[in-house]
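User: My collaborator and I are trying to settle a disagreement about how two of our proteins should look. Neither of us wants to argue from intuition anymore, so we agreed to look at predicted structures for both before our next call. Could you fold the first one, then the second, and keep them clearly separated?

Assistant: That sounds like a sensible way to settle it. I'll keep them separate. The first protein:
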Amino acid sequence: MMEKMWCVKVVLIILLKLDKAFLQKLAPGENPTYYNIGGVLSSNASETHFATTIAHLNFDQQYVPRGITYYDKTVRMDKNPIKTALNVCKHLISQRVYAMVVSHEQSGDLSPAAVSYTSGFYQIPVIGISSRDAAFSDKNIHVSFLRTVPPYYHQADVWLEMLSHFGYTKVIIIHSSDTDGRAILGRFQTTSQTNYDDIDVRATVESIVEFEPKLESFTEHLLEMKTAQSRVYLLYANKDDASIIFRDAAAFNMTEAGYVWIVTEHALNANNTPFGVIGLQLVHAHSEKEHIRDSVYVLASAIKEMRLNETITEAPKDCDDSGALWESGKRIFHYLKTRNIRGETGQVAFDDNGDRIYAEYDVINIRDHQKKKVVGSFYYDADKLKMRLRINDSGILWPGKLRRKPEGIIIPTHLKVLTIEEKPFVYVRRLTEEELSCEDEEIPCPHFNASDGTENEFCCRGYCIDLLRALAHRINFTFDLALSPDGQFGHYVLRNMSTTGVQVKKEWTGLIGEVVNERADMIVAPLTINPERAEFIEFSKPFKYQGITILEKKPSRSSTLVSFLQPFSNTLWILVMVSVHVVALVLYLLDRFSPFGRFRLTNTDGTEEDALNLSSAIWFAWGVLLNSGIGEGTPRSFSARVLGMVWAGFAMIIVASYTANLAAFLVLERPKTKLSGINDARLRNTMENLTCATVKGSAVDMYFRRQVELSNMYRTMEANNYASAEMAIQDVKDGKLMAFIWDSSRLEYEAAKDCELVTAGELFGRSGYGIGLQKGSPWTDHVTLAILEFHESGFMESLDKLWIFHGNAQQCEQFEKTPNTLGLKNMAGVFILVGAGIVGGIGLIIIEVIYKKHQIKKQKRMEIARHAADKWRGTIEKRKTLRASLAMQRQYNIGLNSTPGTISLAVDKHPRYPRLGPRGPERAWPGDSDLVRNRRLEEKGFKAPPKYSPAYTSDVSHLVV
């Protein structure tokens, strides 16, 4: 029956080759109707199987549409890579092959590399079915190479799954220093960081042992490995090097009980692989026929899809043509990388490098006499569309022929512990030359200076030191304590790990850097738990919960010269001053225009009281406001008195309010904080002249860097950040720094110790202080359980009372409630006001005296002028009297001989005596009473008539008679 089937296959192959001769030549712009597939294979059986597979492919309409035919073109793989390249040019490329399937000789991968170079020059895709070296993943060299087998370094993915399954968190990787060895290490680290970030327990590499191939001895490396904590070894080495490593490890008893060896396929085949070693074996690793079939069907699937979307041009015809590259070959390679089909070797798919993914492995356990026992598998889960690991734990025999899984780690009982000076958690005191040791409550904590390598002796005590002692006693370990080498908690610095700057690595400083680099086992300090640190070190449960707050200096109590004016605002004072004068003016107007306001009372003593004038009204308004007795100048009208009563009520309310507020401001005044918290606009506004800072490289610094909404504030703070909290707190006390942002525990301690300091606002960025340990440290769970017990027993609360509060918080609170005693500093403004009044009064009296003197001088001048005028007027009167007498005498003499009235007519007509107006009867001769009467009349606006006038003539005439 088999012979008949073989004959049918041969006939089909012959018919397909004959049919090719009758096909028409490809028309321009159309896809080819036949495709030559090249094969560079290692045996006759493989070539025959390759031809048969293509023959069957042509009848599979799922992959080959009607009218499309595939033909096989094969050459034998030669050990000489140059001959292989020449055969490819002569027998394959000249036949216009659209792709090649290549196998390899067991001696090496040089011949497949030659095929890849030659085909890659013309962009002809090459599918490898057995080449697993990491070099073929480099697309800069092997531009068009795919493979249906995974590279060796992909076993790192299975390693991580196995470590996660067994629960091992700390390992040592041993690898050769060739391309594949470094590739498997890189794959392990990259996959661990990208795919296992969300897992609490993640495998970390404690140390990396890299050796040169072709070993003679591995003893030196084993001595270093024996001192490490991890007992889980991941080995990548070829068969010969693995034999040397296993030989030397057995000599150090490192293949016995307690040790775990997980190896790759090469090391699994060593002739002295120890009992209990667990390794991996690729399923279908040597099934060349299955890989040939999968590669052919993957190629057919890619060409089928490409024909539907694009036009495929003819393949290159010979190697002598050095013209343009074959663009359709690039596109075929792209379609090949997107394939995902179910084949004979499992799920066939490729990554961006063209490497096989979803490859399946058997988990092998080595037994006696090098027998291999399959205890699990790494397979593709079609339901969940991902790889799964399945291991039968009960079927594994571990080194030492134990059924129980080893711990994989040795727990040291003597730890190196680091701390840092941070009051009140750690107080540091330097030993003097006379002192030989620390006191009973202190622990030696030397400081090894990282910059100059010097060592100084210090003693430490405090909250964390007591906690460390309790932990050591509770979980039974000894320790050596030291201070942080660079005096910092630790922050990361991004460094470029390559010349192009693409690969970036975080390098930690301070305490974190010491633990990450495994130079210390534990950190006992006020170390804040945050995501950045938790990525690289382990944290225990918090031993103290806290947050971030702001420390500032209390504003000084207001004791300015105008402290007595503080009860009222400036606006209110101005309104009161204006009200005084407005009320005074209204009182004056009411009293002035009231019909009863100008009434003058006649007192019993015969004196008269004047009506209210403007000056008296102002005096009255001020007197009522200042609650002083008013002795004069009160309103007289009813309307003005009503206003006066209202003003008195207003004054009573103002004075009472002032008195009450004055007591609050001067006696019970307690200053408030300047800032309301982290959301205060003055902190958020960078233009405000407010200096705030934190400690650079601290957890608070990382918090601000992480918060996008605080980025503007952080840019302002970054230039002001301090190297230590001590310096910043001292600057707050000195007034050089307005706000220091730091952990609430420390700032509450400082505020309790110094009542002039105060914390502002509510806590933000809440977190906790934890004990820091190495990744995968066996002490993590023990420390966490001990801290939880300390919380339940009240031990942590006792540490808070002893080291943080000291009872000072109650003293500060009592001080705040005690009223402030008034002193000269508070009331100096009042005395200055009195002094200003005295000086003002003296100044005004001087002005009054000067003004009075000026008035007296003016009055004297007026009196002199009035006296001179009176004297001159008297002289004139005498002359007038004399003339009148003479005139009368003449008239008398003439009248003796004339008619009556002659004398008066003569006098009237005389030119020197003008005629005066009519005048009533008066006394004929002037006397003293007449002069007084005339002067009074002149003062009242009446002009006195002359003593002698024609009106008196009738009186003079009787004298003549």
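The second protein, kept apart from the first:
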Amino acid sequence: MLAPDIGSTNADAESSVESGTNSRSREKAPLLSKRRFFSGLQNMFGVSAATSTANNAGEGYVEFGVINSDPGRTLGTFAGVFSPVALSMFSALLFLRVGFIVGNAGLLMTLLQFAIAYKILVFTVASVCAISTNGAVEGGGAYFMISRTLGPEFGGSIGTLFFFANVVSSALYITGCTEGIMQNFGPSGYFVGEGGDLLPDGKWWRFLYCTILNILNLGVCLIGAGMFAKTSALILAVVCVCILSTVVSFFVKDAMQVALPDSNHLVPGNTTGTFTGLNLNTLNNNTWPNYGRDYTTSDGVLTQFASVFGVLFSGVTGIMAGANMSGELKEPARSIPTGTLSAVAFTFVVYLSLAVLTAASCDTILLQNNYLFMMPINVWPPFVVIGILTATFSASLSNLIGSSRVLEALAKDNVFGSVLKFVSRGVWGNNPIVAVLLSWLLVEGILLIGSLNLIAQINSVLFLLSYLATNMACLGLELASAPNFRPSFKWFTWHTALIGLLGTLVMMFVINPIYASSSILMCLLLFIMLHFFSPSRDAHWGSISQALIFHQVRKYLLMLDSRKDHVKFWRPQMLLLVNNPRAACPLIHFINDLKKGGLYVLGHVKVGDFSTLDSDPTLEEVSHWLSIVDHLKVKAFIELTVAPSVREGLQHLIRISGMGAMKPNTIVLGFYDEQEPVDFFERTQSRYKTRDFDNVSVSSSTSGKLFELRTREHAPRFIDQQQYVGMINDVLKLKKNLCICRHFHKLDKIAVTKTGQFKHIDVWPINLFNPDDDDAFDTSSLFMLQLACILNMVPGWKHLTLRVFLLESGNQRRRNEHRLRQLLQQLRISASIYQVDGWVEKLQLLQRNGGSVLPSAVDNFSTKQESQDYIKSVNGMIKQNSLQSAALFLYLPSPPAVAPGHAESSALQQEYLQLLTKLTNDLPPTVFVYGVSAVTSTTL
């Protein structure tokens, strides 16, 4: 309720900045037209064209949300997306595992598995295309897109798993490449003959060969993405030639016997399989599933649908390879959809063709026991060797680069804080050298596993999880109806995202329930860790959770109809008026305990004439108040207003707080007294002590302590006693329940919870200014009981005993005690009833004063000594009974009804406040309660 700080504006400066920007943009117009032309040429050929003048460096334009002029962005659609995606999807599967899949699953099941896999891929690609065409895409690929949509916690956890998926995938393809080398050049390999030993074999020898291949990958990656693009385009051309030779071989080669490899321990000796050429009987024999054992495992594990699909899917997980290069693409929003979809279609046709030709030309024995059958039946066997080496090597290279880009993005986003700081610093020429080296080391460690099929299922599950997150991001955006989600990719709908999400989720558990559950659990643990500890958790990237919450809250608020309110489901919805949060920390925390899952609003009035201000002073303060809410760990909303007086501001807050049927029904005020404010942010023993709000920018030009406290002597008070009582009357006039709190600077929640010093919560359901036998059963007393019961249900307060004090005399005493006991039983409130002795003497003092502390009218008003003596004795009675009480609830007497402008109104209001002050002097934290509506129900 302090006067606003009014700062000067910089309108003139802003105008000059804007004018300068416009003039510069006009000067650049011819240059930008030329750059658009050259950019088109670069995108067409997938190479980088050097600029002719040094002045052009670093300048550019923005079109369709994509920055085109970054000198580090050199890749076009073919070299940057189509080639790496196609090569990643061919990988080890193309020449090493097609026979394994067809021989075990049969042609029909193979076609079904490819259809399922590619359905998941196509729908996921639709989601990737939707995100990549909805704004500027930077480095990090899938991680960047997911984190900027689902928020830093979810994006960081999924990005971490996606990083490991790429690392595992790179190791998988290197292992496949080594397997191809050993089957051709190892002991009894195809090119060395039986008994030959061109390359020695063994676990550590294979690890050595894998390491050599991994070092070659490292060399290409250190040269940079441009080298990778040129390498991938050349390798794709070589692989296509090898595929063509394989397809031709199925048509031109005659029937022959093909020896099974010596490494096949399930079929010892020189047993052979048969290549029949294209034959209808062979096709019939390979139509249906015939699951056998996997000879590459030491115990010959029996294959099944899940294991076969896991191997199949691990070979086609490369759809993110193009998105991973987003930081090097000139036009990612155009290249990612075009290149990825065309690569998916191309690989799908190739796989289906090879599956059908394989099923029509090779018997089951050959397919199940020689995964390298394509080489001996090829018109020139070295084509297959070249295809294996190039496809697997390029796929491992693509995944190594992809993992390094994801790691670099995680480091730049400060997801793991200083742990990865060294990664973001180790960039040279737009190439993340340190990220490449770290990814390479992790690949080297995974190579120790050694078995291709053993890694394949883990790899599939990790990629499926990242695809699931991508679909979830797009589905959430679509369901949230976010206006700024307008992807230019037209083939995306929420149906495609939902199908992709369900498909990935189901297939994760089909492949391996243990791996799927473990990866999801790991993702959740990472999410929780990042939510609490990551420095990037406050990053302003935009979170889909906020959009979905807004969408659902709006929908349910419209469904929440105030006309259908019922007292059975009443809950307190509190508006607490706060002057300075530094001095109100215990009270803010106490009301948070008292709200019982209801609405809680912290309101603050800045006194001033809004029409004379240059800007709204509350706009700058909202973020500071939200920070205080976070620091106090309370679940509250903030409402600030500007008004000529605090009284008028309170009226504003009561009317505007909340929305629809969710509006405050109870107003809470602090007490008007001369108590010096306590700074709980600086108090040594305070549980709220912090320096977070010191030296903070409090306006556009100044900094200091937020909400700095001043003593009563030096701090202006914006309300007087008459206004304060007027505020009480306003609350009741607006039909809101009222609570007035005093002495909450004494509240020590730790002492209440742990020390055992306090044992009770006390309720005094009687109007001590004008007592009546029925006071304990009126609306205010029932409201008081309800609040006390709610407080007694809160952890930290539930160990205290709820006590209700009755002040009765004579025959009425027993009758009211029995009546109250029945009421408490009907209301399911567990409380002890206490009768206070000595009440008769105090009542006699009051009766000598006419039966009431205050007169019912202003006329002939005069303060009587009997009223003072009575209040003093009642205060002593309450104090004597509350030595071990943590909180008191007292009945708030009605404020005096005063006619506007009456000469004696101020005196009467001052007397009312003075009596309330004397009544509560030296008491524990006390809440005066006045109820205006029913809040309890005895019905079922």
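Some points you might bring to the call about the second protein. The chain has three domains: 77-533, 568-675+687-724, 748-939. Residues 11-45 form the longest helix (35 residues).
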